[in-house]
Amino acid sequence: MKTNNIAHNRRILSGLFIGIFIMEIALGIYYGYFQDFKMQDAFARTANAFYVFFVAPPRFASIGLVWNPLPSVLQLPLVFLSQIWKPLVTHGIAASIISSLFAAGSVVVLFRTFIKLNISVKYTFLCLFLYAFNPFIYFYGFNGMSEGITFFFMIYAESCLILWMKEGEAHYIMRIAFALALAFFCRYEAIPFAAAMGIGVLILLFFGPSVKSGVPAGSIKESYYYAEGTAIVLYTPLLVAVILWISFNWVISGNPLYFLNSAYSNSAYLSLSSGVSDTPWGILFYVVEKSLPFIPLFVGIVVVRILNGRLLKYDFFVLLILSAALIVFHYIMLLSGSSYGWLRFFAYVLPITFAWLPHELAEIAKADKVLKFTMSSVIILSLLVSWGLTLSVLENPQKSPEEHSSMDTTESRRIAEYIDENLPEERILTDSFVTGEILVNLKQMSNMVVTASLDFYDCLENPHKYGITYLLVPDPEEGTGSLDALNSRYPGLYAGKEEWCTEEMIFTGFKLFKVIY
Prior knowledge:
Shape: elongated
Number of strands: 5
Structural class: mainly alpha
Transmembrane segments: 12-34, 88-111, 123-142, 148-165, 172-188, 194-211, 232-252, 283-304, 316-334, 340-358, 370-389
Number of domains: 3
Keywords: Membrane, Transmembrane, Transmembrane helix
Order of helices and strands: HHHHHHHHHHHHHHHHHHHHEHEHEHEE
Strand order of the largest sheet: 2-1-3-5-4
Distance between the termini: 81 Å
Number of helices: 23
Organism: Desulfitobacterium chlororespirans DSM 11544
Protein name: Dolichyl-phosphate-mannose-protein mannosyltransferase
């Protein structure tokens, strides 16, 4: 009988995974291939994977040292296959496939946790449907952005935390530890999330019945050692991940903090931004407004806890810390001028709160029939409210400008076509920071010297000496063009003030220069 149940659950899990993946990737292909819609950050991760294979010599270091590498690493096999079908790269299909896989994986992890805590299968499916097809969660499942992958690791870590809280088995701590490390290789938000997770683990160690039973009793010193050992297990993989990332930056670029302070870092991007507000209160209002579509479920859980008298129990503070951590983090980032304040930065509270939901539902199941129905209805209502609010925000370009901003590919393809047809044998120097979309549309890259090329900086200092015959330069007055290495090294270049090169061709937002001497 037990074997049959296991086989049945496996069929359900497989069906869920395949079904969610198909529904995600279907829209990913529709938006990417047929609508030619690509988000800038998603494309950047694909481009970094592209440079590994197609910038000579092929090497893993070409994946870059600014964006966390895992989303690009996961795309490597698909990007390699772009030699057979170019849209995997040029239309962002590779990124969409990866994010769709992790969106499906998130639903599977959640389903297993719901079932393990004996939540009704029908109710589980209803909750999962409202979560997986929440407009924001669904959109970030297929758009190739790194958030969808990060959501998966956070959900997995929190699901393990809940099961550890219920069962007290140490292997869950090890699973959380590796999930945190992998989340760091996706996004830096893993750091505040890991800090919140550590606080939550400590609370559960000393107040959670199942976990507390394993803590040595009667000795404060022994309890401290137990907590210390748990923290070491929890944070060692993350610490190793951080050290590895800093070491890669140091060995490859000579700057251990290259990802933080280079010309291509987030701080460089932000130097071009005016910020969202000049006052702490203005920023606080902004944060609340951006967070609003994602917090109804948290509010619903608060209402449920009030109804069953559990609001101030120890486990609520674990949820509160986990849910608030990234909102507070991005508030601080905005205060320091270190964040763009995009909508997606405040969305983490939704998957974090939803991953906690099985624990709440397991407690609801202990109530009488009427109260149980009332509390279950509150949860569904809160998910519906979040569904409506996120849809409203995503439909409004003023409230979600990044989600409505697609890369303009027409001119990039025109430039790539011009180079392929007219300059196939010429050696062209360009900074891939801005020209990445042009590069991935080229038929061949052998004549291009780009940021990932071993001799890029030598060629930048003396183009003629190293055989450079053409320069492709973005307009420094548009977007991030002022951060381009050629514009930074030769401030008058785009305006035609450099005598050693002459303007060859003008494109929208770019110029092609011929090197004379």
